[in-house]
Amino acid sequence: MAPVPPIVQATGLRRDYRQGAVLVRALRGVDLAVEPGEFTALMGPSGSGKTTLLNLLGALDEPTAGEVSIEGRRLSALGDRQRADLRLERLGFVFQSYNLLPVLSAFENVEFVLRLRGVDAGERRRRAMAALAAVGLEGLEHRRPDELSGGQQQRVAVARAIVGDPVLVLADEPTANLDSETGHALIALMRRINEERGTTFLFATHDPKVMDAARRVVRLVDGRVEADERR
After folding, report:
1. Angle between helices 106-117 and 121-134 (to 10 degrees)
2. Residues near 73 by Cβ (< 8 Å), separated by ≥ 6?
3. Can you give 116-174 as a three-state secondary structure string?
4. How far apart are CA 122 and CA 127, in angstroms?
5. DSSP 8-state symbol, 115
6. Rounded distance between C-alpha atoms, residue 160 and residue 43, angstroms
7. 3 state SS of 230
8. What is the CATH number of domain 37-49+84-230?
9. For residues 223 and 24, is the Cβ–Cβ distance under 8 A?
């Protein structure tokens, strides 16, 4: 039997961009493989390349050099539509600013992923309600984002990220806009989802709470992997 490839693998990743007349080298040759079931934190100071790396691994951006593969598929070999389909079908995203649609209810925000996939209404409802229950939002499904606290909004974002059973959830500073207690609760929630569902999580963060919960910590400094610690 052939070995199962990593969920995502980066090889020799470089990402350069211009900031006015200045050439910024955000990533300088990063190698990283994420295996199924991991709960991994990308740590590092501001400007270390965490978000840049997460965007490349999530097929949201393209590298200057190097390669990213998701489940053995090289992103460089995919067209724009194929990359969009891969994000929709195989990945989940949680953002610092929640990125919920303000005119939609919590339920509608969560089911939107399934609607894009063409899932029928009955199955959409079953799965969206189950995802909201998994993050402890029973009874709040009809509230819009402005009727929810920051922590509740981020729980909706987590429900949206997991509703499609992605192979990988990419979370960019998910606790940055939350108070300490709410941040702890959110990380505990995602750790429980990881353990119960086997969902793989990869965080870009500088929050010590995430580092404490992670089973693997990859430290980035100046666009390079400085350390990779498994626990």
Report:
1. 130
2. 86
3. HHCCCHHHHHHHHHHHHHHCCCCCCCCCCHHHCCHHHHHHHHHHHHHCCCCCEEEEECC
4. 9
5. H
6. 24
7. strand
8. 3.40.50.300
9. no
Query: Quick one: pLDDT at residue 224?
Result: 97
The label of the residue with tokens 């089911």 reads 111
pLDDT recorded at residue 2? 65
Question: Residue 168: its pLDDT value, please?
Answer: 96
Distance of CA 227 to the CA centre of its chain: 21
- 12's CB contacts (< 8 A; 6+ apart) are 29, 30, 31, 65, 66, 67
pLDDT for the residue 1: 66
Question: What predicted TM-score, i.e. pTM, was given to this entire model?
Answer: 0.94
| Ranges of residues in the chain whose predicted pLDDT is under 50 | none
Q: Which residues pair with 149 in a beta bridge?
A: none
Residue type at position 29: G
CA distance 28 to 55: 15
**3-state helix/strand/coil string of 174-188:** CCCCCCHHHHHHHHH
